[in-house]
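Ticket #4471: structure output looks truncated?

Reporter: J.K.
Steps to reproduce: submitted the chain below (218 residues) through the standard prediction queue, then opened the result file.
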Amino acid sequence: RVIMSLVKILNVNIIDPTAAFLAPYKLEITFECIEQLKDDLEFKLIYVCSGKSSTLDQELESLFVGPVPVGINKFVLEAAAPDATKIPGDSVLDLSVIMLRCDYMSRTYTRIGYYVHSAYTDEALQANPPAAPALDKVQRSILAEKPRVTQFTINWEDPTQDEQPPAQSVEEMMAGDDDEDDAQDEDSDDDDEDEADDDADVDLDAMEAQDEAELGSD
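Returned output as attached by the reporter:
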């Protein structure tokens, strides 16, 4: 039988969305557990610098949370900045993505992506950027108010069974139950985000479509 999701991500608060490129990432995650779970939850933060190849992805942190009590839970996930030596070319200064992946027994039930814009704050460096990025001069800005959320249906009794096709991808403000009715569809993005999406080497829409195609072929 199909079981509705036993874990619901209520809110993700990006602590210091604007920070130095080398600063650690800090995400305060609030979630609700509906029923007692047999196993721990796993939360991963992944840095995606290219939508063309997942081999370039960097897993910044993986944290197991459990035993998980029924009710509302909150914790802070902290992860080191990506290793710039593993980012090709000048992609450090391109638009990239951080992806929060929420797993249960190796099955993903929620994935939340955020665009990250990294740039020099110094006008001289903006006009004449060095061949090798001066990382201590680079500032990152996470578009924390515009997450891309993808929900996946899993068998919570036996996650080793095949996943169902993912639920429809949505864009929503991660502000808890009170704001659920205000969740916005992808077509309601503002002009600034549309422009960012057009310029981004990492396309979250394309990644979501690829996920749906892969799951549908299983």
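Triage note (M.O.): checked the attachment and the full token line is present. Confidence is low (pLDDT under 50) at residues 167-200, 212-218.
Status: closed, working as intended.
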